[in-house]
Each structure stands twice: as structure tokens, then as C-alpha cells.
């Protein structure tokens, strides 16, 4: 199914890649800026810095007071936010098309002059905000630390994906203003970013505006490459069994997967979709509908570019059901898929679901801008938004089975279980224990 979203690209003299997709059918414009820095770029002792900057970027710059970034954009009807991930950080806003200049000016001011506002007081304030976020989202939330536990089991120590984006609070406590400034100067420059503009603006006007606001910013020295994280399937089963105050018993299995941008990763992702994708997935049919041993099941692939990706399968036990029954059923279905493969009907179903999800993502200017930045920054090819469905449609049932038999195996997994605390509950095996 060929797509034909218009794309035009220019690289400014300072190295900033600008991609424009004009859409005059809507009265809005989306601005999306991806920086090539995420948690995998953080060396030991500096974890959590990319996420810290997600907060600091909204606390003022040379010509913008703290809090004004949000207030100025919201005053003209914008929605805006930012996010940090293993492979990148992005900042984005969608607003009526007349606000394009304001959005670009604000993004350029913090790209070029953020450090004018990053002082000890600002750092201390945002460090406390990050700590509170960790308490709310990780420490005091049921199952909130599951991914932290899983990636520690899945990857060797100091692997680029062995820590979450929230980072270590000890690292943040030890950070001096000079450390924070040095991290920003290393990664936050025009030649380490992609700027995408989508919506109600002509290509010529969009490029002119990008040059006007960003063209004078100096390039930074070429950042060091992220460490290579290439690893194969996990060798063994590594468990972390937790007894805690949780609403239900839960199990999550995590598998290493192939690197993003490869047919093998697409095949592995479709294999997980066959198992856990929606109401028609094998696990939902068996565990939830037929045997009723699970309240819900979920799972899927998380594509990454640093040499390896990962995927998960999660089951929440029904009331009164021993979690071991859920684990045994998951193991059985994982091995059955690797041994017997999938049917052509199952493949067609998960491919159609993936196509629907992709088209929904591209249907909005904001979603389209984010995917353009994604593929321009991480793959050097924004036009992948127009060819992605064809790549997924090209995957065969044999490729799905081959990927599953190599990567998604019961004997090659990290696993965390949560069991409700009872009078008779006893803590399980130590984190990292191997079968």
C-alpha cells in the first residue's frame, strides 16, 4: 500500500537537518525536534542526564524566563510536551499555523542558549522534580519498577540499555552544574538534531523560517558515538521474584530481539503480536477466554537501534489462580510458536493490525512529524514513513517462525514476577538468579 506524503529536506550550514511535509488541508502546524541523545549515550556515573534535560529545557533560556515556554505556546492554542527514550530525546508542539514563528523561536533559543539559565538553583529544583517522578512512577506504583528489574537481568552491567531513562538518583545527586553543562554542550547542537515541520505551511516558507531561527546557531563538535550494544539471544533464564503490596499476581517475560530496521526485527515483532496482539492473540484466547487463568495478557516488541531490541509478554493472574499456571501456559505457547510457526491467516491479521496502527499514527500532523523525525534521525531516511507498510507486508510466515525460534524462546528470557503479600508469603529467589 504505497503512501505519498510529500517530503522535502534541507541541511543548514550548521548541520541541522530540516524536513518539511506541507499539508494545506488543516489549519495547524506541528514542530518536532529530535536530538540524537538518549539513555544509551550516558556513560556510567551520568545516567539520567538526557531525561534531566527533558525537564531543564522548559525552565528558561537566554531570552525566555522559566515557565514561559509552556505559557507562551499555550496562549496561542498549542499542545506541547517532550519525551526521553533509550535512543533519542524529542520536543514537540502542535498549534494553529500562525504560531509557527513562535514555536521555532522558542526551540531555537533553548537549543542555542539554554545554559544561560542552568544554574545551581535550577538544577537543584529539577533534580527534585525528577526524584519525585521516580517515586510516583517507579517506586510507589504497583509493578512500577518491573522494567528496571528486567533490563538489569536482560543485559550485562554497563550495557547501553541496562538502565532506564530515569537514571540513577545517586548519579543525579552527584552531578555538578559543570557536569550538566558539559553534557549539554556535547549533544544539544544543530548538527545532532532533526527538525520536522508538518502542516499548513509551504515548503519554501518553512525552510526560510528554519534558517531564520536556527541558521545562526553554531555547530557543536561531532558527538562521540554511543557504545555498541550488539548482543545475541539471552543464554539462560534469569528471574527476579518479588513479594509486594500489588493488586494481583503478575509475570512479565522479556526477550532480546534483533536490531531495529531489519526484516528480522519485523518478523520477531509480528511473532509477539500473534501471541499477545489484541483479543485475537493466542494468549488472550487461551489464558483469558478459554482457561480463564489470566485477567489480561499483553506484549509486543520495543525496537531499538543500538545493536539489539527487546520484547515482552505479560500476564496478570486471575483471582485464586497460582501464578505458576500462567507462567507454564506462557512458556508452552512461546515454545509452540517457535516449533510450529504461524498460519497465513494469523500473519494476515497481525499485518493488518500493524497497518492500521501505522495509518493512525500518520493521520495527525503531530504523529506524522514525530515519525518523520524518528526515521530521519535514526535511519537517515524520512521517506520510510511512506514505505513502512510495504516492509511489514513483505514479512513471510517462515520468517516469523525463524525469528521466533532464534529469539523468543522460553530458555532465553529474563523474568520478573510479583506476588501479593500474604501472611504466608515468602520472598522468592534473588534478583538475577539463573535457572
TrEMBL record:
It holds the Pfam family Peptidase_M16_C. Keywords: Hydrolase, Metalloprotease, Protease, Zinc. Residues 17-138 form the Peptidase M16 N-terminal domain. Residues 177-353 form the Peptidase M16 C-terminal domain. It comes from Kribbella koreensis. Belongs to the peptidase M16 family. This is Pitrilysin family protein.
Amino acid at each position: 500500500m504505497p503512501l505519498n506524503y510529500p517530503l522535502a529536506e534541507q541541511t543548514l550550514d550548521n548541520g541541522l537537518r530540516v524536513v518539511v511535509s506541507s499539508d494545506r488541508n488543516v489549519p495547524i502546524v506541528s514542530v518536532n525536534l529530535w536530538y540524537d541523545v538518549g539513555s544509551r549515550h550516558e556513560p556510567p556515573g551520568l545516567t539520567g542526564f538526557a531525561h534531566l534535560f527533558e525537564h531543564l529545557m522548559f525552565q528558561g533560556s537566554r531570552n525566555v524566563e522559566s515557565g514561559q515556554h509552556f505559557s507562551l505556546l499555550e496562549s496561542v492554542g498549542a499542545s506541547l510536551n517532550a519525551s526521553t527514550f533509550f535512543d533519542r530525546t524529542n520536543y514537540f508542539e502542535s498549534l494553529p499555523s500562525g504560531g509557527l514563528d513562535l514555536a521555532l523561536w522558542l526551540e531555537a533559543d533553548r537549543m542555542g542558549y539554554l545554559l544561560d539559565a542552568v544554574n545551581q538553583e535550577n538544577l537543584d529544583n529539577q533534580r527534585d522534580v525528577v526524584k519525585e517522578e521516580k517515586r510516583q512512577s517507579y517506586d510507589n506504583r504497583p509493578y512500577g519498577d518491573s522494567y528496571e528489574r528486567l533490563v538489569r537481568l536482560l543485559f550485562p552491567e554497563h550495557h547501553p540499555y541496562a538502565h532506564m531513562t530515569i537514571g540513577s538518583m545517586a548519579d543525579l545527586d552527584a552531578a555538578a552544574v559543570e557536569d550538566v553543562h558539559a553534557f549539554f554542550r556535547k549533544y544539544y547542537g544543530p548538527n545532532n538534531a532533526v527538525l520536522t515541520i508538518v502542516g499548513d505551511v509551504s515548503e519554501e516558507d518553512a525552510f526560510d523560517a528554519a534558517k531564520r531561527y536556527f541558521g545562526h546557531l553554531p555547530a557543536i563538535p561531532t558527538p562521540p558515538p554511543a557504545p555498541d550494544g550488539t548482543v545475541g539471544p539471552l543464554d539462560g533464564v534469569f528471574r527476579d521474584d518479588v513479594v509486594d503490596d500489588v493488586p494481583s499476581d503478575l509475570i512479565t517475560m522479556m526477550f532480546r530481539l534483533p536490531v531495529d530496521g531489519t526484516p528480522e526485527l519485523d518478523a520477531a515483532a509480528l511473532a509477539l503480536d500473534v501471541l499477545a496482539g489484541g483479543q485475537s492473540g493466542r494468549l488472550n484466547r487461551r489464558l483469558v477466554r478459554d482457561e480463564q487463568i489470566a485477567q489480561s495478557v499483553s506484549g509486543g516488541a520495543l525496537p531499538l537501534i543500538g545493536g539489539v531490541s527487546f520484547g515482552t509478554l505479560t500476564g496478570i493472574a486471575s483471582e485464586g489462580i497460582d501464578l505458576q499456571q500462567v507462567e507454564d501456559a506462557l512458556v508452552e505457547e512461546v515454545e509452540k510458536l517457535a516449533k510450529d510457526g504461524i498460519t497465513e491467516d494469523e500473519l494476515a491479521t497481525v499485518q493488518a493490525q500493524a497497518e492500521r496502527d501505522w495509518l493512525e499514527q500518520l493521520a495527525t500532523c503531530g504523529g506524522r512529524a514525530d515519525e518523520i523525525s524518528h526515521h530521519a534521525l535514526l535511519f537517515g531516511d524520512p521517506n520510510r514513513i511512506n514505505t513502512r507498510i510495504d516492509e511489514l507486508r513483505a514479512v513471510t510466515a517462515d520468517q516469523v517462525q525463524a525469528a521466533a525460534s532464534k529469539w523468543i524462546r522460553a530458555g532465553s528470557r529474563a523474568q520478573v514476577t510479583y506476588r501479593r503479600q500474604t501472611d504466608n508469603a515468602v520472598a522468592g529467589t534473588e534478583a538475577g538468579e539463573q535457572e
